[in-house]
């Protein structure tokens, strides 16, 4: 059956969760996703348990429908191969710390010269140009920074992280949606673009009911356990 992104090629330079989730969603919609991994060990997620018959179930859960190639991006010949891959593609996804791809000569400005219609999606903890851009971050960090942990748990209790990697997957969802929207623009104009997806911004966005309360009234939302701030009965009994 024809899929909406059939014929679209995506090159994924991602490790662990947020970028991989984005690539998986695009692959599910029919894109040809080629994942670039380091020759020594590959993606960090490959080593995460549970391991079944030598294969990580966590890795499998975020990398279905993808192809994979190993490149050492500290090697000049492999950098040239990476450029050739990008030139053949419609989309690049990367979730390195801001500036890493630029230093490798694989950043957006360099690659748009090779492929003017390229959609280049950058996923990071805080964004590419903000004051905290050079700080590393991961799901737990962003759940804390966004305030999600402060409203999770029982009243009077300590901050609690969500049981799923909410910040990682929220960023991956926003990235995939943004890439598909950008591809529509490329189809209309032929001009590519770059997309800056901060995990913090995506997490604040999905907490819209609580962030709107804070920004609108100045009140900090509070922990309610499984209760609802406005509706009753609405709770675990």
Report the average pLDDT across residues: 93
Distance between the termini: 45 Å
> CATH superfamily assignment?
Crotonobetainyl-coa:carnitine coa-transferase, domain 1
The total tally of domains equals 1
Secondary-structure arrangement, i.e. CATH architecture: 3-Layer(aba) Sandwich
What ranges have pLDDT less than 50 throughout 5 or more consecutive residues? none
Q: What class would the helix/strand composition place it in? A: alpha/beta
DSSP helix fraction: 25-40%
Series of H and E elements: EHEEEHEHEHHEHHEHH
Task: Please identify the top-level CATH class.
Answer: Alpha Beta
Strand content: 15-25%
Instruction: Tell me the number of helical segments per DSSP (H or I, 4 or more residues long).
Output: 9
How would the blueprint of this fold be written?
Layout: E1 9-13, H1 18-28, E2 32-37, E3 51-52, E4 55-56, H2 57-62, E5 66-70, H3 76-87, E6 91-94, H4 100-103, H5 108-114, E7 119-124, H6 139-146, H7 166-189, E8 193-198, H8 199-206, H9 208-217
Parallel strand pairs: 1-2, 1-6, 2-5, 6-7, 7-8
Antiparallel strand pairs: 3-4
Helix pairs in contact: 1-7, 6-8, 7-8
Which labels suit this protein?
15% strand; two-stranded antiparallel sheet; alpha/beta; 9 helices; 8 strands; Rossmann fold; 6-stranded parallel β-sheet; 237 residues
Give the structure's gist in a few sentences.
Helix content is 38%, strand content 15%.
Structure write-up:
The chain has 9 helices and 8 strands. The protein is of the alpha/beta class and about 240 residues long. Strands 5-2-1-6-7-8 form a 6-stranded parallel sheet, with helices on both faces. Strands 3-4 form a two-stranded antiparallel ribbon. Helix 1 packs across helix 7, helix 6 packs across helix 8 and helix 7 packs across helix 8. The longest helix has 24 residues. The termini are far apart. The mean pLDDT is about 95.
